[in-house]
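Homework help thread (please don't just give me the answer)

Our assignment gives two proteins as sequence + structure token strings and asks us to describe the second one. The first is just a warm-up. Here they are:
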Amino acid sequence: LADEYPELGLKAPEAQATSVSLMLHVADTDQTLERARQHGAVVQREPYENYGARAATIIDPFGHRWMLSGPVTGAAIQIQHGDVGYVSVWTPDADRAAAFYGHVLGWTYDPQTHQVTNTHEHIGIYSVSGPPTLFCCYAVDDLDGAAQSIVDGGGTVDEVEEFDFGTLRGATDPQGASFGIFRPNPGRPRPAINGTGPGELSYITYEVPDSAAFRAFYSRVLFWTFQPGRIVDGWQVDQTHPMAGVAGSSPQRVTVPMWTVDDVDAAVARVRQAGGTVIDEPSQQPYGKSAQ
């Protein structure tokens, strides 16, 4: 570590301009992170546990990125940058959708707040013109920085709004799809990777015409990385909660949720009873039984 020497061409990197990460092994990740925060570091990723270590990532006041790595503790993990912290079912008729999902998934719905009231995660139902889809709101560590990344990537951002789960800004991506970013309230726990029980969000599929454009934009904003999936032009999003994947070369842009149920066959029967359509009958997949 040394001071800058401009006369020798040695200068600190500009903010978010370095591609190098320095890993530092520490005795206590959380304590070290808090000391760094108090001394001016920007937390790029709050503590998380993976591969036998408790890790976090910071940008020091001089532009260098440090990855802190310490022993696992089993302590609660806060929601991470890029995780989905809120979803809303967008549909032409919210009341009709609420009745349908109440019958199929057991949801209870408050028409005054447009919120589902008996799920662990925050879920809304809103009447919106246009094709039905799932609106997703993603946690970010730096709301202003994420907003700038959206604009730099060709998207747009709305004004700041306050909600019970955090500070939010609506946005659209370069393909015109709506989404949100929010700064979570302190202590907000991380969503389960596949939901915590019946009625909860288990998986998200982003059906997009151009997967390369989708991956380029969301990797810029949410720091997502991707791995090739099991289908042609299919991609798995790494490490986000809940789990998510991308289905490229799709005819139109739509976000498709998968909901957890106790009994897939019984849930499919309830779909039919409530007037829904079964596209794919129940079948056993590598991850479990599912239907569409």
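The one we have to describe:
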Amino acid sequence: MKSGIYGTKFLNYTKSLLFTLLIIVIVFWSSGPIFVAIASSFKSNKDIFTYKPVIIFKPVLENYIKLVSDWPVFFKALRNSIVATGLSILTVLLLALPAAYSFSRRYCRGFKSVSLFLIIVRMFPPIVITIPLYPIFRSLGLIDTPWALILVFTAFQLSISVMLLKAFIDSVPIELEEQASIDGCTGISTFFKIILPLLWPGIIAIIIFVAIFSWNDFTFSFLLTGVKAKTAPVVIGEMQGLLGTGSTMTWGMMFAASTIQFLPMLIFIWLTQKKLIGGYMLGSVKG
């Protein structure tokens, strides 16, 4: 009897250990390129591509200093990325919240058709949407402006945002709204005081989705911008094209630019992840 119990415990322990090792391997495999890019940005050019990788080295700021002095256009593009990403998040939330609430609480005979249309729009490859939009945006004077990116990012992320928020609103008991109506709350006040606080997990999830898509986008930014509104990924692509052409561009500067570009998003996701967990706990308590 005891041997059977010990055998079960040993089997469970072995499974837990193997699962933990698998998670560790996946984490190292996924985060390895990130650590290599960050470490290489502080290495001299001769240490980046040595035959035996240099693990212990003296950090230098030469790559960042050269990036600031030789490529001020990169930091302008980084500012464009911040503007396009921030306004895209705001626009998606302003449109998705009322749309999701209407789909959830108001009966619509054609809801299934609308839902199918939203999903189909999200499935289109970016290049398929960009080609017909280019002449339209050019006639409206939106080419090489942040508004072109904001409109495209919003259109591409609005469908999944509406469907996700609708699922969260569906989980909120309608009796809460009925009770608030009895207490004298209007429809708008009920939404902001009762529904909205319970939607924070969904809102944070949408912010993360839209931020990652907008911040890392290359296709839309490359085709719809030129000089004034191009974003950081486009400039990094231009920097990569100069490697090995005799220019002052080096791999160290490339790694420095890549680190500056992706590090803010990693920090942003880490911070919003805490808010996401806190929102789930808040929703469970209030629900």
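TA reply:
I won't write it for you, but here's a hint about the kind of observation we're looking for: DSSP finds 13 helices and no strands in the chain.
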